[in-house]
Amino acid sequence: MSEWRYWLNEQRGTLTGLAIFLVMFVIYVANHPAGFTANVVHTAANKGVLLAFVAMAQALVVITAGIDLSVGMILVLTNCLASWIVVGGAVPTALGVVAVLSTGVLCGAINGILVIYGRLQPIVATIATGAVYFGLALLLRPFPGGSVNEDLADALTGRLFGVIPSSLVALAAVVVLIWLPFRRSVAGRAAYAAGSSESAAFMSGVPIRRGKFAAYLLGGLLAGMGGLFLTFFTYTGEAAYASGSAYTLWSIAAVVLGGVSLYGGRGSAVGAIFGAFAARTTGDMLFAFDVDPLWQPLLQGVVLMIAVSIGSLALLRVRNRLDWFR
Amino acid sequence: MSETSENHVSMRTRLPSFIRRADPAVLTAFGCILLLLFLGSLYSSNFLSPDYLLQQLKVASFLGVVAAGMMVVILLGHIDLSVPWVMTAGAMMACAVAGFGNTGSVAAIPVGILCGVAFGLLNGIGVAYLRIPSMIVTLASNVVAQGLMVVYTGGFSPQDSAPPAVRWLATGAVVPGLPNAILVWLAISAAMVFLLTRTAFGRAVYGIGNSERAAFLSGVATRSVVMIAFVVSGALSAFGGVLLAGYASKAAQAMGDAYLLPSIAAVVLGGTSILGGRGSYLGTVAGVILITLLQSILSVMQMPEAGRQIVYGVVIIAMLLLYGRAPPNR
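Output (structure tokens, whole complex):
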């Protein structure tokens, strides 16, 4: 009985994220002219998956009490790279995918090395590496263009058995194959411990460096997957600064909506996925309500503002005013 | 052992007091400025001409105004990500008001700044009273500001041009040869130094940056101080936007995008701790000049945008590794 309570308390953020998403999605589908059909779900899933990958990447880093302001730029860089090398027959395509994902891992590793061994503050270090990654993307693609193996792209963005969006399946596979093993590993627990209290974790002999490094590394990998999927959706590579920084900013919003604490140590990447879907649904909602697209950014901002303010209801429970401060 | 440390102390006492008290980070930043100028002068002797230097200071003054506001917030241990669209909103509103004839062009600058105050108030209430992490509140208000401006302009850059007063403030010269923008930056800098070092508010900002809990227990009204700091940052961002609109003679969509990361980088390169509580305004000035010079030299050398971004990032990382490292964990 009491075990349930602990589990519920631990998962509260994730469940809140799920609840926000479900409410948004039900409103969206109820007002969508086509209703709850495979097509509507498919489109929504494909839009959401991109942000979901980036949000997972952000969540991994945020759990260690860090922040990665270069995720969007890693996405753009891997997108540009993929538009060059994920082409041709089966073998070159496979090699290309491996190379793109390794690039993501490498970017994450550079961030991790600078933050952990260089002892730089993550927020400024990743601003700087983000500029470098964007520069590299611009070198690869001064102008939008390129192509991708369309068979693979269609397979991963289409539907399985005519119903299930395969991008969602890919996302679920990533959760099962990367997130869950990480969460259960020593490194994963060390990442949570480091985010919760780095000095306490250090004193207890937790391998915090390994944990944090693994989080940054996997963050790079997930952002790379996001870049790969972006290429599959658009068939091109484009080094767009605005889209990179938008992905970074919305990944932070998604992480918060998904119940991951920006102070570290609380929340899960699964919550971030729900947060990402919720954020995406907000944008689509206006389409369903037939609002002038010009109003979309404003309403998105207002919804985001309200969503993050809901968390401050917890202030009403505070008995000691010192608990305001962390 | 003690002998060497005494020796060390006597060495230090012999130095002039302003060097002894100077922050090593600020000194390094100024050193890097000199190094950049030296490298630039190897490339072309124009880099040391007064015209070029004044032009750089003028360009730097827009970033300097924005970075001054950013610094107050960073000293608290918070961050203001709403800079890009608050700048744009301030600029667009100032230009829009100017359309209303004479009263309009008088009111342009105050109205632009008031827009920034409004967004700063929104941020400040969210951070100080609702206790939402500053990163996410300011992010949300950035999106709100963007949304408002998109609705207002219909997604295009507005046709209103900047009123003469604003243009004069950004490009004119009261003292011949010395652009007004630099004077504005100087005035704001003097006010900032006074605010941070000579007022109770400044003390409270440093205190909250070190430990908000301790400042609260010492009787500081921490919530209103935090709120005011965000208002200052919003007002200065908007004012920076107004100046920039005067320089370009009109407001444009996304004109503030190029100022968010440089303003954070300038503050941090100037030796202010991103965790708050530590840093001097002089360092921020050094950081602003450093970043402007770096951008200018890279563009004079006709490096393509890609190379500029890479060099820019690498230089920031290298400088941070030089003096921005946190103490080890043990």
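Chain A has one domain: 2-324.
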